[in-house]
């Protein structure tokens, strides 16, 4: 397996439905050996992009390739790409095992492969139960098992964390990490960064059909800079002192009656400034970078940024 084998390359992809562009001149690359989060708010164009990548929707312009070819031009797509776009398409009366065996028959895989992937996704104990009794999380696992049948180099998963409890997410993280460590390409979409933050090491963030950021998750954290939370009986004076030293007003928020939250400065700077101005401080702390806040800033959905305002506590 060489690195080129599993690269996803999206170049200038566009799709318009009626008057509105769902995807507009979208360009990004997903590298093998890592887990990439494909992120954007609801309606950003994630599913449309994945459907174009998988040959289910014809782009108006641009091209998406997997391992150097368009999906429809891949000679044995099931061995190259495993995809989960929706998890509702199971026959309710069929057992998980029967569902997978049908896929084995259709694709020419041995039936033993069904049991292997059931083991892999932790569904062996439920293999002989009808799917109608499966929880949403179990359906997610079965969908993932279906995608893994052909031992694909590339995995494309639409909202895989949806329906999983924290234990399920931890399990998914281990599984995807193992698959990526084997050199596979893993692309997972989500509209909630916090849901996949522990899962991914790279991100492609889209908004209104366009790429607004791509790169390592750690770079996203650096984009935000440090965040300081400070309590003082004189928040207005401290606010004014900060702006006098050049801190932009937009970086200072009042997060409580005696509390300010300041981005882009360090605790040392705030402490020294308060001392110089003789402003008493009751408390001063560096906050963990709130990636969700960065995400909302990038995608312009600041009205949803309530969790960020909460973090001063
Ligand atoms: N078949 C279609 N016909 C008309 N409009 C569509 C169609 N598919 C998607 N759209 C529109 O394109 C835009 C992008 O939708 P898409 O489902 O790709 O976004 P998304 O990022 O996957 O959102 P979500 O997280 O809600 O699934 C939306 O405005 C949607 O209403």
UniProtKB/TrEMBL annotation:
Entry-linked PROSITE patterns: ABC_TRANSPORTER_1, ABC_TRANSPORTER_2
One Pfam short name: ABC_tran
Domain ABC transporter: start-end pairs: 8-233
MF terms in GO: ATP binding; ATP hydrolysis activity
Keyword ATP-binding: yes
InterPro entries: AAA+_ATPase, ABC_transporter-like_ATP-bd, ABC_transporter-like_CS, P-loop_NTPase
Gene3D superfamilies reported for this sequence: P-loop containing nucleotide triphosphate hydrolases
Keywords: ATP-binding, Nucleotide-binding, Transport
Family affiliation: Belongs to the ABC transporter superfamily.
Protein name in the entry: ABC transporter ATP-binding protein
Provenance organism: Micromonospora deserti
